[in-house]
Amino acid sequence: MMGLREHKPAETAPPSRSAPTLDANHSTAGLRWLFERRERWELTMDQLGELLGGVRRRTLADWRKRVTGGEKVDVSRDTMERISLLLGIHKALVLITPSGHEAMAFDWFRKPIDLMGLQGQSIRDYLLEQGSMDALYYVRRNLDAMRG
Fold first, then answer.
1. How confident is the model at residue 14 (pLDDT cuts 50, 70, 90)?
2. Is residue 5 domain-resident?
3. What pLDDT, in 10s, does the model give residues 35-61?
4. Virtual torsion, Cα 46, 133, 94, 55, nearest 10 deg
5. What is the DSSP string of 51-100?
6. Is the pLDDT assigned to residue 15 strictly greater than 60?
7. Among 37, 41, 102, 125, which residue carries the largest CB count within 10 Å?
């Protein structure tokens, strides 16, 4: 009589749930988007550098030149996260504006508001004053909560 073999199920690794890999294509697109909005947000290059975590004006000017010239620009993970948060803030502002009045999103970024505990500061001024990643997350979460 033949012995029965014990069947063991093959062990499989749990599915990987890592974040998508961001590369120079993503950072280049993010920078292009940001440079296109900088003036409508009434940000100087120095202020934009502050929002990106202390990036120097010379570096920003180089990035803008390269992006405009069709080159790819790779940025740090921290800078990419800040770009992503600014994009999310803008998207949330656009989504809470009445249809056909998307320009109001730029106004709400620049002008004083009495929302989210900003006590009459604009989102821009609050973010510049705080200068932290936490401030970007705070505004993003609150705007997301406002739109439901």
1. low
2. no
3. 999 999 999 999 999 999 999 999 999
4. 20
5. HTTS--HHHHHHHHHHHHTT------HHHHHHHHHHHHHHHHHHHHSPTT
6. no
7. 41
